[in-house]
Amino acid sequence: MTTNGNHDGHEHGADGRDLPIAQSPQRVSGMRVPDWVLPGKPEDLDTLAEDAWRQTGFACGDDLRLVEALLDVQVRLAGTGYTPAARTMEMAAFASLWSRALLSTSDAVSLLRRGAYQSAVPLLRQAVECIAAQRGLAGDSGADLDEWRRWTHEAYGRHDDTRSTEIGLGHYFAGEAIASDAHLRVIYRAASDLGRPNFGPTALFVANEANHTRYPLNFADHAFHLGWAQVLLGWALRLGISQIHLALHLTRYFPAPDGMRADAVAAVRDAEARLDDPDRCTIEEWVDEAGHRRMLLTQFRRRSVDAPQRLLL
To answer: How many CB atoms lie within 10 A of CB 17?
Structure first.
């Protein structure tokens, strides 16, 4: 079988007709799914990070417990993909991206617990992309999943010029899946803007009490900040909810028993109730008169006793 080099999800014969793509040549073997808990407290924290860890546990303990519950349910759901009937490379396409989303979320939570808020942001953006990629693969047309199958056929060949094994980039980005989901879209756009060297977000990370007359710079600031902790833990909760919703619809690949599905639904319900708290800090989309989408921070404050702010970026 030959291909004309197009990447539209189909093989093409010499006459240009679509030909079916064969099943992936690899077989899934040795998938290890561990028991899951959030990583514990590092031993070498400095004074500020130590205080941030303590205050995060005190002020955001319910959020942390719910994040951990969502991650635990995800690991259990993912493990059902290793049953003989579900153990296919199509399942592996979802599980591989799911694994990256779960680790990115867990690592981000570990960072924000010690006050490294800006370092957690790119990891949560990566989790958005990996969850959206799974949604793309699950699309009704099947074209995106065909792209995965195509990559499996082309990957791991020998590249003679460099005397290497050629894996290939396998470029894939499910932008439509992000844009079509109101929650993922807000997180992705906010995480993108916060993660870049934009002046406004930079000031919020290093001089969050600045105003029109003063700029109180805190170089390499990683002191506890309730607003940032609530925003980022809220994102972690929302990503867990999105991932579990997706997994529960992928019964062909992850045939979870009824009891496990009930646990997943209960964890999602608890997390959604937590996100409905009107007193937590959030980032929302705000559209101005010209139609420009901007970010509105609400209930933004370093400590619970501080007056909450509304900040427009």
So the answer is: 9
